[in-house]
Amino acid sequence: MATIENAQQSNAETSFDFWLSEIRQIGCSDPLTHFRDNSFGQINLERAHPGGLAQFVTGRPTLLSNLVRDPLSFSRALSAARRIKSKQLALSEHFGLETLYMASGLVDLRADDTDLCMPVLLWPVNLVRKHDDFELSLSRKAIVNPALAPALSSAYGVRLNNEDLLVHVKVGSDPIPIRVLDHIASLTETATAPELRRVLVISNFSSAAIELAADFKRVDNPVVKLFSEGISPTQTSELGVADPIAVTDSDMTQTKIVSKALAGASFAVETLPGCGYTQTVVLLMAALAHQGKRVLVLAPRRQTLNELADRVAQIGLQGLGIRSSSTWLDMIGAISRNEKSQPANYQSLAALRDSSREQISNYFAAFEKVDGELGVSIEQALEHLSRLSASQNPPVNEARIDADQLGRHRDLTFALNLIRQAQQLGELEIGPEDSAWFRARFDNPQEIQPRIALARALHQGSFQALSDQLADFTKAVEFAPAKTVSDWVRYLELFVGIRHTLDKFKPEVFDRPLTELILATAPRKDKSVMSGANRRRLKKLAKEYLRPGMHVEDMHLALKDIQSQRDAWSRNCLVAKPPQVPLGIKDAQVAVSTFVDELKVLQTHLSTEAVSLELENQPLETLRKSLRSLAEDTMILDNYAERAMTQSRLDEAGLGPLSIELAKLHTKKDNLKSELELAWWKSALETLLQRSGGSLADDHEQVIANEQRFAKAESDLIQEGSKTVSFELATRWKQALASYPAEAQTLKELLKLKRAVLSEVHTMAPNIYQALVPVVMCSPYEVPTVLAKGDRFDVALVLDGAGSSIAENYSGLIRSGQVVVFGDDAIAAATGFNLECLPVGENERSLPESIFSASRKVMAVETLRRSYRLSGQALGDYVNREFYNDRIVFEPSLERYLGRINAKLELVEQPTASNPESLDAEVSKTTELIFSHARWNPQDSLLVATASTKHAERLNQSVELGMKDRADLAEFFEGHGREKFEITTIQDLAHRIADRVIFSIGFGKDTLGATPKSLGFVSHPDGNRYLANTLVSARKHITVVSALTASDLSDPGVIGSDALRDMISEIANPKLRVFDADVNPMIADLAIRLTKLGVTTRTNFSPRLKLVASVGDKAAIVEPDWGLLGYNLSERHRLRPMILRAMGWDYIRVPSFELFADPERVAQRIAIQLGIELSKKPQALFELEPKAFEDTASAWGDPEDSNDQRLREDKPPHWG
In sequence order, which residues have a C-beta less than 8 Å from that of residue 298 and are 6 or more positions away? Predict the structure, then answer.
């Protein structure tokens, strides 16, 4: 253990020494400590014209031409001024450094065995371009070189007080008074005196390295320890803070990043281009500030910090982050926001969002849930059923497998074997329509032949005889013909009953009303309503209907029977006549009774599948057919024992209904598997729906309504999130004001004076400062100068981390207890900067490891992969493939679907030139494109990049010259804010974005027609990175201007040409990627239906779009349940649809059950939404059956090409 600790300590010491060494090398050569004459990057005013110099030192604006009047010297000074100004702008924009100064006076210590040669005073200078000249103005306050006092103390042991030195400087007089040099000489007169001399030089100077080195200290800080000891932190299962507050849209990765940061984790974030980098930082800043944590945002580029400030202001959090470059303005904004903030309604909106989310989650959970018994989900069932229905020979049975047997048949092998055995026995060849013996049951095979014989006897003898005899009976009495054997029985029973009545009663009994007689003869309890006399009279009358000598035991019952017989007779007799009895009914009744008994014997063996009605209740013609089948279709009984055993096994396995269906369909052997699968999946689907307990298959509109309600609730919650953060910050601010009134008054006085420096506010009002400034945003090079020594932060956010080193960010790291590092090393590296303007060749140096690369080694890494560029990415597929290994997730743009390419190659043709760099034709063509853009697309920002420094300079000169005749275009070149027009080299292009980019390569062929071996920065060791950065800088479109074709770059001797050749080839011959994937059968069916309606469809247009439907330029993405993409509900139902709509697509959601149950209705709905008016011009969904000949034109003597129908349909547009 001690050995490990010693090794870690040794690593830490080595790291500290290394970082300090890197800090001292910032800016490469430092003119504040190692000044040297450099006409390439300095304007020497020692010999300036006295008149111009006198004007200049007083602080009045002075033209460079008035200072340097010799033409040759002015030319050199003008060139140097251009370089100095360009360097100043680059360092200010990309590193947050102000470097434009005039150095006056020089202390040379090189004679004392040191290499120090230092300016004394630094005067801030303004350098403004004025056509072919520069205007210079001098600040009225000088500063002392911060390296001077430490150097004099180290070399001579003397203490230089800067204030004492500045006392000798008089504003408006000599910028390097002799008294200043005398003061320094007086301090060092006892030692070996340094060489003191006058110098007056305008150049680029910065004390960043000096300040960072002075701020460097070895501390026991968790962040620094993480980097210095080089040990990866132990991975934890902590997922971070659940459901963090959001102030803008965020995908799952962004939410995870915020959650981890809130939980205190340090980690790295890889920021792929266009994937919500700034958005993520805004989310982090707001969430951390809401939690009460202080945040230090470190970004070298001012544009990055300004974009963050603008973004937080757009969501109502202006002043959340205080910039070092705009401290007073940001503090005023923060105070204004705090004073105006109102309470938010976040919790109630969160509850509404959660409720909506739960409804959607329940739906999809039920849809996707895999049943424990069946091992499948509803989603899988729908997909398999759709696939079966779309097969070449789709199964058609409607059978179901018993629910309690479904789980047994998850593997269909056993069931399929049973079905095949039945098929081999012929069980599936004969169905219930083929034989009435289908699935007949016998106790033993010996019963079969007697039953067949009985059936034959009935069919051939009894049935026909009885049919004839009963037909004679009904005809004789003029009854309606009997329809069933039951009618025979009923008729005969009626005839027998009437005969029995006529045997005892006179025929007149059927002609008289019997109601009162029945009542009079009823038992006593039923005749209380009738008087005794009347009852006796009626009873006597009833007896008069008896035949002489006849007697009945129960007159009441006899009369009721007569009434019933009379009613039955009237119902069945076709004419009004008294009841009568045909002859021979007794024998007929016996015969029919025997016939019925024999039918019942047969009925006991028959299956209801074959004989749905009992034989005696079947219509007589149906019964005749059944008896014929029972008598003749007996082949099915030939191997009854084997069939019965197989049927029993099928029934036990729950496959009985299926076998019956298959027998009805006479299913062939090759179709058994698909029919079995259909039955199983249909049964599984119904069982799963029943078990889900929901209405998944019912209300399709409700599903979409729930999703829309969730999306709106979450959008409302995000808007309320900003108000919640604002109110929380306002509460802390007001509490601080109440607790520290003196500090509040101090801050008020400072702001009145328009003085607001972070370190000063921290020192004078520390408690108010903590409440007002939860987030500080500055360049890492500014930290020692803008922050107070005791200013501490909970979290440091290092932005553009691939472009800076640990050493450069060290001052910020030691002030924080946690770090999140953002970066993309495919387009950036820790190149640092050269402070001085030096000729090409003197700027090369070895690059340190970036803080992002170092973070990836010792921290977890999250990757932002979802592209949010609404116009797509220029050459997106190429960039993704070549530089990011297809890790960027692009949503295909509508422009791409419509075939509009976002990249163009402009080939320049020019005769060969002695100098192939920056050909005149390429300069002319690029300039033409620039002015064309300014005139026809001024709403889009423009960036011009080139691989040649010389070409960049010539293009600038060409544009300046062209502007003399195009003053009306000046507004474009001065507009677009931070995306202002710029011409730069691909090396100097850093984290720059523009709507459109022109990449003018800047090289052609030499006089021999050969390609140069070096193509400027393309041939640089980092040429591929430069190219990648150039491509991802284009938001909408990129134009490549080249005098070289891809074939010209095939020479392996051309350094670094591979990537450029591939890029030119990609633009010249774009490769449209084809995605060969299986199409879901429901989607395939829907596409066919849409095509029939006149809609253009494309399936698998991209891996992320299953179906695109379009009419003209209007296109829609159709997404069923299983096509929704995203890692959570927010991505699937709100974020992705919102992005697709913003990209120009229509977005149409189709619930799976709606598509499964009624695809025609879905197709018509989509067609109508795309603008097809189906109601005005109905169109058949599918091909109709061929017309009969008599319905054709030929049958009527008309030619087949008659255009009558076309003439009826064609109407002028104004007809409507």
Answer: 778, 779, 780, 783, 796, 797, 798, 799, 809, 812
User: What backbone torsions phi and psi does residue 127 show, to the nearest 5 degrees?
Assistant: -130, 110
Q: Cα–Cα distances in Å, from 972 out to 923, 985, 1000?
A: 20, 21, 20
Question: How many C-alpha atoms does 1038 have within 13 Å on its Cβ side?
Answer: 29
Residue at token pair 């034959």: 456
Torsion angle of alpha carbons 805, 809, 813, 816, nearest 10°?
-130
Q: Residue 1006 has what pLDDT?
A: 86
Residue 821, token pair as written in the block:
């590092």
The SS3 of residue 608 is: coil
Averaged pLDDT, 904-933? 91
Residue 547: the pLDDT is 84
Scan for tokens 């006991």, then name that residue.
604
Tens of pLDDT, residues 246-266: 999 999 999 999 999 999 999
Cα separation, 685 vs 696, in Å, equals 11
Cα separation, 1202 vs 296, whole angstroms: 81
Specify the pLDDT at position 821: 98
Of 211-220, 237-246, 533-542, 1160-1169, the poorest mean pLDDT is in 237-246
Residue with tokens 């932060």: 793
Cβ burial of 1077 (10 Å; 0-12, 13-18, 19+) is: exposed
**pLDDT for residue 559 is more than 70:** yes
Q: Are 834 and 843 in contact (CB under 8 A)?
A: yes
Structure tokens at 589: 């009744």
- The four Cα atoms 238, 1129, 269, 262 give a dihedral, to 10 degrees, of -40
Nearest CA among 576, 598, 428 for reference residue 511: 576
Query: Which helix H or strand E contains 1040, and what residues bound it?
Result: strand 1034-1042
Do the beta carbons of residue 976 and residue 917 sit within 8 Å? Answer: no
Residues in the chain: 1216
897-1068: CATH number: 3.40.50.300
Question: Which helix (DSSP H) or strand (DSSP E) does residue 63 occupy?
Answer: strand 62-63
- In 752-846 the beta strands, taken as DSSP E runs, fall at 775-778, 795-798, 819-823
Query: In Å, how far are 606, 635, 644, 646, 941 from 639, measured between CA atoms?
Result: 17, 8, 9, 11, 88
CA quadruple 549, 554, 557, 561: dihedral, nearest 10: -20
Superfamily of domain 222-340+719-864: P-loop containing nucleotide triphosphate hydrolases (3.40.50.300)
CA-to-CA separations, 886 to 849, 862, 1037, 1182, in angstroms, rounded: 25, 16, 20, 41
Alpha carbon of residue 1033 to chain centroid: 23
Pairing status of strand 100-108 against strand 117-130: antiparallel
User: What distance in Å separates the CA atoms of residue 959 and residue 969, rounded to the nearest whole number?
Assistant: 11
Mean pLDDT taken over the chain: 88
CB 433 within 8 A of CB 636: no
CA 648 to chain centroid, in Å, comes to 54
Q: Using one digit for the tens of pLDDT, what is the confidence trace for 51-69? A: 999 999 988 999 999 999 9
For residue 827, what are the contacts with CB-CB under 8 A and spacing of at least 6?
273, 802, 883, 991, 1025, 1028, 1029, 1032
C-alpha to C-alpha distance for 737 and 334, rounded to whole angstroms: 14
What is the fold of 1081-1194? Endonuclease; Chain A (3.40.960)
Q: What is the pLDDT of residue 1213?
A: 41
- Count of CB atoms situated within 10 Å of the CB of 1008: 7
Domain layout of the chain by residue ranges? 31-205, 222-340+719-864, 367-435+639-693, 445-633, 897-1068, 1081-1194
Per CATH, 897-1068 and 1081-1194 having the same topology is answered no
Q: Is the pLDDT of residue 429 over 80?
A: yes
